[in-house]
Here is the input.
Amino acid sequence: MVKDDYQIIPKRTDAYLNWCFADHLTNRYHRFVLEGGGEIRGYLVLRLIERNGEKIGRIVDILATRKDEKFYQGLITFALEFFEKRGVDTVQAFESTCPELSKALKRNGFSHRLTTQRPMKMQAWQREDDIPPEIFHNPKNWYFTYADCESDLFPLQV
Here is the structure.
């Protein structure tokens, strides 16, 4: 499974993803699945936002296998085409420490932007025997998107 490519990743079960996106009461999400070789290779969740006359496209959640960067590249390309067809002015994505995702974002013209939002601090608890400290304390082992920090629920935070 795709999630098995990541050492530390918030749970992404069918029930959780449906609760978060399909059944959301106020936000409309566009959900897509990437299939290949008879199995799911990844997925993408997009949202259109209008604020102060600007159309914003947000890549809310994106997940693909780390085994091949082409899966992230394909999902990012699809997202940009989706937003372009809808006249979006700006596209946002939350950068994880996933090298494959970072490379795909950079290849497609994404750049780091400063925001007025305070820096996010991660705080987590673990049992000593769950995850070895060398894995837990290395940020390259963690995988997050907008969906994991619930930033998408608060539209004034960019």
